[in-house]
Amino acid sequence: MIDVTCAIILWEDKVLVTQRSEKMSLSLKWEFPGGKIERGETAESCLHRELMEELNIQVKILRTLSPSSFDYGKFSINLIPFLVNYLSGEIILAEHETYKWLSRNELKDIDWAPADVPILEEFLKLNI
Ligand SMILES: Nc1nc2c([nH]c(=O)n2[C@H]2C[C@H](O)[C@@H](COP(=O)(O)OP(=O)(O)OP(=O)(O)O)O2)c(=O)[nH]1
């Protein structure tokens, strides 16, 4: 099981979502940005590192949501979500195809990586 962090990034009333590129696994699926936890790293430090590497942004962590385990067949992941506020940095994509800031209502309409679906559902039930 691979531990992966991801961030629900809030800015005003929008959430940042990123689309995986054609070259990546889960090609063209939408996800909450983040990545694999490296040896000796905490989930929080992984999240800050990945958001800087992949997007060039800094965030403030507010809280965690429930982890989502998903078996993709060739591998399985434990996806650990954090609710965060966007703080600073102009978005520069290192790997992703594209990104969007979406309102809560728009989040259901994109083609999510399967592991993200329970996380999205929990987020949509929160009163924020
Ligand atoms: N970062 C991120 N990864 C996710 C999400 N949902 C989901 O199934 N994943 C999967 C995709 C990848 O298999 C893995 C995260 O790997 P990664 O983004 O750090 O690495 P990667 O694509 O470079 O790795 P790989 O597929 O080439 O092995 O978790 C998500 O919301 N965010």
TrEMBL record:
PROSITE patterns found in the cross-reference section: NUDIX, NUDIX_BOX
Reported cofactor(s): Mg(2+)
Transmembrane segments: none
Keyword list, A-Z: DNA damage, DNA repair, DNA replication, Hydrolase, Magnesium, Metal-binding, Mutator protein
Hydrolase recorded as keyword: yes
A GO biological process held by the record: DNA replication
Residue ranges of domain Nudix hydrolase in the record: 1-125
Record's catalysed reaction(s): 8-oxo-GTP + H2O = 8-oxo-GMP + diphosphate + H(+); 8-oxo-dGTP + H2O = 8-oxo-dGMP + diphosphate + H(+)
Gene Ontology molecular-function annotations: 8-oxo-7,8-dihydrodeoxyguanosine triphosphate pyrophosphatase activity; 8-oxo-7,8-dihydroguanosine triphosphate pyrophosphatase activity; 8-oxo-dGDP phosphatase activity; 8-oxo-GDP phosphatase activity; metal ion binding
Keyword DNA repair: yes
Pfam families in the cross-refs: NUDIX
Entry EC number(s): 3.6.1.55
Similarity comment: family membership: Belongs to the Nudix hydrolase family.
PANTHER family linked: 8-OXO-DGTP DIPHOSPHATASE, NUDIX HYDROLASE FAMILY PROTEIN
Name the UniProt record assigns to this protein: 8-oxo-dGTP diphosphatase
Organism, scientific name: Rufibacter latericius
